[in-house]
Amino acid sequence: MSEIWVIAEKRGSKIHSSTFELLGKARELSEKNGFAVSLALLIEERPSEEVFDELFAGGTDRVVLSVHEGFRRFDFQPYIRVLEKMIREYSPEIVLAPATSSGRSYMPGLAALLDTGLTADCTGLDIEEVTGNLLQTRPAIGGNIIATIKTPSHRPQMATVRPKTFSPLKEKYDSKRELVQFEVEPELVKTSAQLIEFVPIGEGKKGVQDAEIIVAGGMGLRRIENMLPVYRLCKLINGTVGASRKIVDSKWLGHEAQVGLSGHTVKPKIYIAAGISGAVQHIAGMQTSEFIVAINRDRNAAIFNFADIGLVGDATEILDELVESLGAEVEK
Ligand SMILES: Cc1cc2nc3c(=O)[nH]c(=O)nc-3n(C[C@H](O)[C@H](O)[C@H](O)COP(=O)(O)OP(=O)(O)OC[C@H]3O[C@@H](n4cnc5c(N)ncnc54)[C@H](O)[C@@H]3O)c2cc1C
User: Fold this and answer.
1) How many CB atoms lie under 10 A from the CB of residue 216?
2) pLDDT in tens, 283-299
3) Which protein residues are within 6 Å of ligand 1, measured from CB?
4) Nearest-angstrom CA–CA distance, 8 and 14
5) Is there a contact between 242 and 208 (Cβ–Cβ < 8 Å)?
6) Model pLDDT for residues 215-271, shown as the tens digit of each residue
7) Which of 167, 189, 211 is a domain's end point?
8) Cross-strand partners of 40
9) Ligand 1 centroid vs 167 CA: distance in angstroms?
10) Same domain, 31 and 155
11) Which of 160, 183, 195, 311 is most buried by its number of CB atoms within 10 A?
């Protein structure tokens, strides 16, 4: 039976949320073409039964498990060799991986080994009715067009998807729970890479990706000191500070705060955009937010086309009013 494969992303011994988002999408696609869903998991030690329960309930029919110490830290070389072997053995029609730093590293190498195409950073996936080809949608030409890409004459069809683009299944999947142990020969996990130092990302650099509430500032704030009400509001509502690229390019904030095509894709419960115009490249990163509040002086600003609530006026004044109305003293 033809299959859709999802390559699991792990963080330490835990499975990253992007894996469940891709499983959710894979199940949706499988309903269209009747494909089974398999998950490839490369990990340093056999996971607990709870992890398997989570994966099966998350939407996979089968887990293809490869356990080796060499997978403790991500290393491009063992990854592509082991995945190539797995994929040649099972011949899936479609292979999906999250567009995380590791996914973005190994998927191009893997596609090259398999002599097939890869569409990176997809924002949409569907199945073409007549041909059964995977329709891979993503912004192209600097985000100015949305292109739908097909891989009609090579298999597997490979795509990466940014975390937070799709949603995990809402209900537990009733899986037939097939577990396959995939043995790796020592030469497959050999590497020429050497770990010199491991520097974890500091707390202060926590980015927007997993935030539930984001208050994002744009160039409409005009001066760096006008970011203050953004910080104050975040503090009051337990939000995370985000930004448009112009703010990051101006060095008011680091890249971890940037939302958009060349920044991060976010899916918070609430997204407040203050002084952001709504350029396509920004919208590409935040349009799946659950509730969007836009503040802009220009009532015709594009951001209002995507907002659930639009506030027309000066962003700094409106943010100050919001902070005040939430009971905080605003320094004048
Ligand atoms: C390949 C490529 C990738 C890109 N990637 C990204 C990306 O990841 N993220 C991103 O954000 N951009 C990205 N961009 C840039 C994008 O095209 C825009 O230039 C950028 O989003 C604009 O930022 P902005 O809305 O903050 O500023 P501006 O476009 O300058 O807009 C400022 C807005 O503030 C409003 N305003 C002015 N004064 C006030 C006021 N006093 N109160 C309230 N509102 C006011 C204005 O009406 C305007 O709408 C990318 C561009 C390219 C070509």
Assistant:
1) 30
2) 999 999 999 999 999 99
3) 142-143, 218-220, 244-246, 258-263, 275-277, 279, 281-282, 285, 295-298, 301, 314-315
4) 10
5) yes
6) 999 999 999 999 999 999 999 999 999 999 999 999 999 999 999 999 999 999 999
7) 189
8) 7, 64
9) 27
10) yes
11) 160
Vertex 267: Cα angle to 292 and 288 (nearest 5): 60
- Determine if the pTM surpasses 0.90: no
- 45 and 178 assigned to the same domain: yes
Please identify, by atom number, the ligand 1 atom nearest to the C-alpha of residue 280: 17
With contact defined as beta carbons under 8 Å apart, do 325 and 232 qualify? no
Do residues 185 and 211 share a domain?
A: no
The neighbour count for residue 192, using CB atoms within 10 Å, is 6
Please write the tens of the pLDDT for every residue from 49-95: 999 999 999 999 999 999 999 999 899 999 999 999 999 999 999 99
Q: How far apart are CA 179 and CA 289, in angstroms?
A: 35
For the cut 60, the answer to whether the pLDDT of residue 204 exceeds it is no
Q: Whose CA is nearest to atom 26 of ligand 1?
A: 218
Ligand 1 centroid – CA 312 distance (Å): 16
